[in-house]
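S.,

Sequence below, as promised.
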Amino acid sequence: MDFLPIQRALISVTDKSGLTDLCTALTSKQVQLVSTGGTMRHIQEAGMPVTAVSEVTGFPEILGGRVKTLHPFIHAGILADKDNQEHLDTLSRLDILPFDLVCVNLYDFAQAVEEKKQDVELIEEIDIGGPTLLRAGAKNYHSMTVLPTTEAYSEFLAELENNHGAVSLDFRRRMAARAFALTSRYDHMITKALETQS
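The prediction came back faster than expected:
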């Protein structure tokens, strides 16, 4: 698909920079927002409609927030190939709505290392759901847009304006590459931190 219309977005970010402007632009184009925890509260406080991930999954956040988005109703909506009729039929049969955008940035593990957190405290700063969402969206860039950093927002919004609410394949491919580079660096940082723990 050369140009992907953005109709439904999953947004879950640690860094809230630019979030209000991003969501305002999406809402003005009637994009449905789905979110979690602090991100959802931020969107609500800005006066915009947003659906909780738990409402989509029918399952509450559990284990102190360790499990929120790891659910077939989320990941099938991200990983479905929109050019594959069998995938679309499966979504329809299971009453799963597809996503078009995943906007995620990760827990600030570097800050936790800088603060010299150890053992259990440090482990809690390891993001699992975020990298999984980014990698799923990036893998499926032919049918998805992934925004892995706040710096990508302005270019994404320009894409939406220039393409009448859609995003080009070239932009999606570049964001996918950026997402994989980011998760690779994140894993390397965690590896180094755990190896140096005494």
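The first strand starts at residue 3 and ends at 5.

Coffee later?
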